[in-house]
Structures are given as C-alpha cells and as structure tokens.
Amino acid sequence: MDSPSVQKTPYLTIYLLPAIILALLAYKAYTIATNPLRHIPGPWISLCTNLRLKYAILTGERVRYIHSLHSRYGPIVRISPSELDLCDAAAAKTVYKMGSRFMKTRFYSVFTGSKVVNVFSSQDAQWHGQHRRLTSANFSEQSVKKMEPFIAQNVQLAVRRMREEVQRLGYVDVFKWFMFMATDVIGEASFGESFRMLETGKENQYISDLETLASKGIYRVELEGLVNIVAKLPFGPVKEILRIAARMNAYAEDSVQRYWRLYSADPENVKPTLLTKEYAAVEDGTLEPLQLRRDASGYIIAGTDTTAVTGTYAVWELSKLPEVQEALCREVADLPEGFDDEILRTLPLLDRVLQETLRLHPAVEQGLPRAVPDGGAEFGGYHVPAGQVVGIQAYSMHRDSTVWRDPETFDPSRWEESTKAMQDNFYPFGGGSRVCLGMHFAKVELRHALANFYRTFDVGMKPAFVQGFTEKDMEAVSYFLSPPRGKRCYVMPRKSLS
Ligand code: HEM
Asked: Which of 19, 478, 446 is nearest to 215 (CA)?
C-alpha cells in the first residue's frame, strides 16, 4: 500500500500545479483585457510583456525597434504594457515644455546608480527647480565665455595630436581624440584641472572607471532585480563596481579639495568652472559637499561622450561629402588668428553642419522617459492615465518624412531655410526645464573643434578602411547614449598634407 506522502505528489501534479498555472493565465488575461493602453496601436506582445522591448534595449537596438513600430503603427505606439512612444510635435511640446508636469521617471536614478540625486537624475520638481537655478548660472553664455580660453587650448592640442597620428600612421581615429578632448575639457571645467589624456594619449583610471560604471547603467535599469541579488554576494562583478565607485569618490574628493584650497585663498580670481557657484553655496552652508561631487561626476558623464559622438559624426559625414567639406575648409580658412566663438557662431556652413549632425546623429537618440501626471493626458485622441510612461525619441522625430525631405541623407543645406516644423521636430538636447544644461558649452567646444580640424586638415578627409574598420563600426548603438558601434572612426587626408 502507498504511504500518504507518495499519494500527495500525484495529487500536487495532477490538480494543484495546473490550477496555479490556470490562475496565473487567468490573471494575465485579466490584466491584458483591462490594460488602459490596450486601445493604443502597437504589437500584441507589448500588451502582454515588456520582454520584447527589454531584448531590444539590451542589444542596443531600442531606437531602431521603436522606429520600426512607428513605421508600422503610426505616431503613437505602445511599446510595453505601461509605456508609449510618441512621434508627434504637439505631443513632444506637451511632455517636454517649460513647466511640464510630466516628471522624469525612476529610470534616471537607477541608471545613474546613486542614491544621491543630481540635477540630471532628480524626479522632484521643486528640488530640481532650486538646484537648477544654482547650477545654471555656471552655464550661462557669460560664464562659458570665461572658460573659452581653456576650451580652445584643449581643442588645439587635440587637433595637433590628430595631425601627429596622421603623420605617423597615415590615418587618425577621430573618435578617440574627440573623447580625450571632451574629457580633458570637462575635467578642467569641473575640477579646475585637465585629466591630461590629450598629453599622455591614454585614458586615466578615473575615466576608465567612469566608463565601466556608465556602461552598466542600462543593465542596472533592465535587470534591476538580478543586479540587486548579485550585489548581495560577497564576490563577483557588483563588488568590483563598489570598489570602482569608492575609488572614484576618493578621486573626486581630492580634486574638489584641490580646487577648494585655491577658491578659499582667492575666490575672486580663481579659475572659473562649471561648479564655481556651488563651491560658494557649500561655503555658506546651503549645499552639501557630497552634492557638489555628484554634480561634478554627472557633468563628466553628460558632457563627454555626447560631445565626442557629435564631433565624430560631423567629421564622418563630411568625409563622404567632398564638396561640402571643401566649402567648410574654405569658410574656416579665412578666420583671423585667435578667433573666438563670437566669430565662429556667425559662420553659416559651420552652423548648418552642426545642426545637421545633431539631427541625423543625436547623441541621445532614444526617448527621454516621463511619467504621465495626475489626471492623465490626451495624445492623438487617446486617453493615457496617470503613472504610465511616455517618451519621444529624437531618432524618429528627426526622421519624420513629412517634416524632413530625404530624412536619411546628411544634407546641411536643408538648414538654409529652417521652417517652424523643423524647429518643432528638433530635440537633440531635450526640452523645457530639463533641457540640456551644457548645450551652449557643448556648441562652443564643437565649433572650435570643427574649425580647428578643418583648418589643419584643409585638404579634406575621407574614410580610412584600415585595421578592419568598416561602415558597420559607424552604426550607432543605443544604450541611452548612442556612440558608434565600433567605438572608433578612422579617416585620412584626401591628399598629402601641406
Ligand atoms: C552635443 C552634446 C550634448 C548633447 C547632444 C546633450 C544632450 C542632452 C539631452 C538630450 C538631455 C536631456 C536628458 C533628459 O531629459 O532625459 C541632456 C541633459 C543634460 N545635459 Fe546634456 N548634452 C550634451 C552636452 C552636455 C554637456 C557638455 C554637459 C555638461 C557640461 C551636459 C550636461 C547636461 C545636464 C546636467 C543635463 C540634465 C539637465 C536637467 O535635467 O536639468 N550636456 N543633455
């Protein structure tokens, strides 16, 4: 005769397990049938699960996947059971306008991986408003003007190093040198001292640590549960990340202390930085020193790859358009010695090249996620309840063929007549109260970079398909930021240099 415990197992497998599975299926069917986004166009899978979207995100294909959904379903598309992507100027205005009630989501704090919020990650409108007032004074045109001399010096050093590389190898990796340039500039602008990567030609420990941390951001967001479990283990990758974070804090602390001594000794004549006003706020006790360090690290993350990626794609696109490149070389050749940004910003072709690069290759291609506020919102006749997430990806807005003729073509001449529709569909720097703080700073740096580059390489550049480098290396991958897949960009002079 069977013992009672032996009888229990078939009972479990025959009745209980199927009952649990049925209950789970019924619950899933119920959530699908009552999902408030069920009437919105989108693939059926996006109603059942976010796994398809997650897969696209983890493989760097998020923006291209969503763009394909827009082509199929139209401007308003459901991308997961609780998230929409919108490709529509009116919707973009509603979400990203000044005073918008659509707040940043938890994505930002998980992505940055710190419990201490900064101006980029804050989800609290009041805190953000106050802190942004303090920080934005450092980014005004007047403040950036004071930093222009060291921006120009770093740019000139970068271009000299590129010329040396061309003389040595016959080609140059512009992505590498623009990365070093942007990092040195932002180091000096944040800590009062360059990271000296242009001088040494190598990444320093702080930057390689920062890149390791930043590259994990999207995994923290998409695999949060798993990451939290692994973090509890006494060994493994998360422990290494904690060691990196401790090393970076110590570095930031040293750099801040160094600047502090100079600031305290002579506050009126100390070198201006993007944090000068914050040092004053720490001095008078209205800001925690930790907050200042977090902002400094935030600027380095926000201001390095973004600027380098934009400069790289400008050179890459021009390397395939000899006539436009020649015209730009002529435009910058006539600049007076010691030119500054006041002159650079009057150069029409330089401006159009920059605009067109920001259109076709925005450094942040993906949607900037925001939570729908209390009371919900209407988009294209659909009601979207509070708490759902919406985003508008620059990649798709910048390729809308009803606004941009021949949108996949790099064509600076389209900016000769900039229409209202073009302005309304242009979001390379986000918008409203969360618009990029460093927009003006980045443009000054990029104008100097391109002017110096084409004054030095005045014979023009062409792609250099060497060392296995191909067009594929230049396809963007999107992990919030969108650098070229190969993390390299080789170009070479069209003729020998004079
Ligand atoms: C071409 C270069 C750049 C591009 C394309 C770019 C793009 C962006 C975008 C799209 C956002 C909005 C993010 C969001 O709403 O989720 C943003 C925000 C921000 N950017 Fe930039 N950025 C660039 C350069 C810089 C530089 C050089 C700095 C600092 C020196 C900087 C600092 C910031 C900060 C602090 C924010 C957060 C602002 C806030 O939430 O109030 N950026 N940037």
From this structure: 478
